[in-house]
């Protein structure tokens, strides 16, 4: 792990990942806020130990070019105290990816949206199949 790294830890038994920026001095800047207390969320600086809460941290690797470490750290520090957490558009992963690349992105949100779309499509297809069966039964009864 190095200064300016985008890191994450798994929370709630792996249900989601919490992201932050390593400052290289044993501290991490991240968008705080637990799932049940998102109104209180703001960008804070915590010790690595407090950020991890006993979980192992992982460094996020980027295929594309990223900002240099000092710019990443300065960007993270410039947002201390910022509020406005939004799960779908401005969460801890959006914050960390913005510091690292200048783009607000969240793979977790993309995966969730994809899963919701697949679930919605499956529910819709099930409805179509059931409606078709019902129509065939009615048609069979009406011709008998």
- Rg calc: 22 Å
Strand fraction band? 15-25%
- How do the helices and strands follow one another from N- to C-terminus? EEEEHEHHH
| CATH third-level topology of the largest domain | endopeptidase fold (from Nostoc punctiforme)
What's the CATH class label of the largest domain? Alpha Beta
Shape: elongated
Structural class estimated from helices and strands: alpha+beta
Distance between the termini: 75 Å
**Which CATH-level-2 architecture of the largest domain?**
Alpha-Beta Complex
Offer a concise description of the structure.
By secondary structure, the chain is α+β, with helices and mostly antiparallel strands.
Q: What features would you describe in this structure?
A:
Helices cover 43% and strands 18% of the residues. The chain is α+β, with helices and mostly antiparallel strands and 144 residues long. The protein has a 5-stranded antiparallel β-sheet with strand order 4-3-2-1-5. It is elongated.
Topology, element by element:
Elements: E1 6-11, E2 16-22, E3 27-31, E4 43-47, H1 48-52, E5 57-59, H2 69-78, H3 92-101, H4 107-143
Antiparallel strand pairs: 1-2, 1-5, 2-3, 3-4
